[in-house]
Amino acid sequence: MALTTVAIPVYEHVNEDFGESGYMNVAAKLYMLYRDTDIDLVLFTGNSRSLRYGIDFSRNLTTNFEIHGEYAYLTDLKQNYLGPSGVLAGRERSVSRYLFGLRYLTENDITTIIEYYHNGAGFSSEELTAFYQLVEDADSHLADTGSDLIIQNAKTVSSMGYNSPNLGRNYLYLKINQKDPFNILYLTPGLIAIVNLDDRSYSISPEIQYTGFTNWELRLRYTFLNGGTFTEFAEKQNKNKLELRVRYHF
């Protein structure tokens, strides 16, 4: 067993973006290995954010097959959102977040990870549609009148949570990669897919990684985004994306 504790002060110029200032917050994690299952118990308390706690686990059912899960409960979470009429409103509620996943490794080094994630603090499809409609109206208003008033309003709403990653409520995640295919050393091709199960939009990212140079890592990834009008992945700022990452370790 292992206990880890953390003190998080939030004062002027110290962790100001964490939450309400003027408070000392405390977090703790208790780790234990129980009957070949790794378990973490996590707790956060303090006045900068509301009370929240959770648990996670990981267990190998066989040598090549693992299951894992996470659960978190957040109390009195304050949130702003757009209603169907486009009017900004506020709410306070307690929500759950949880994840369940499987990991399987084949004999020829193909690793497959599949996970379901529920974000109780996320926005519904209707609330996301209202935000994307606001952005569309702001763009049309700017083109017609030259005024950016509605755009400034959309920026304000975006900063209230609509610009965060995984802002929906239900997701499916899939990752597949193979180490050294066809006996090509240091090469790892893979595929990552994320689906928003509520609005059916998705992202698919094939990639290839090479680590054949000492202390260097090269990664090439192409991300394809698709979905209907006013859905999460269809409304990203970019349509598709090509990335080349070069990492040096020292």
Q: What's the layout of helices and strands?
A:
Elements: E1 2-10, E2 23-34, E3 37-45, E4 52-62, E5 65-82, E6 88-105, E7 110-119, H1 125-145, H2 149-162, E8 170-178, E9 187-196, E10 202-210, E11 216-226, E12 240-248
Antiparallel strand pairs: 1-2, 2-3, 3-4, 4-5, 5-6, 6-7, 7-8, 8-9, 9-10, 10-11, 11-12
Give an overview of the whole structure.
This protein is mainly beta. It has a domain at 83-248. Helix content is 14%, strand content 54%. The protein has two helices and twelve strands.
Question: How would you describe this structure in keywords?
Answer:
single chain; 250 residues; mainly beta
Structure in a nutshell:
The chain has 250 residues and is mainly beta. The protein has helices at residues 125-145, 149-162; strands at 2-10, 23-34, 37-45, 52-62, 65-82, 88-105, 110-119, 170-178, 187-196, 202-210, 216-226, 240-248.
DSSP strand count:
12
Give me the secondary-structure category.
mainly beta
Arrangement of strands in the largest sheet = 1-2-3-4-5-6-7-8-9-10-11-12
* Main pleated-sheet profile: 12 strands, antiparallel
Contiguous runs where pLDDT drops below 50 for at least 5 residues: none
User: What Rg do the Cα atoms give?
Assistant: 22 Å
Tally of helical runs: 2
Let me know the average pLDDT: 92
Shape: globular
In percent, how helical is the residue content?
A: 10-25%
Which H/E pattern describes the elements?
EEEEEEEHHEEEEE
Our estimate of the beta-strand percent is over 45%
Q: What distance lies between the first and last C-alpha atoms, to the nearest angstrom?
A: 33 Å
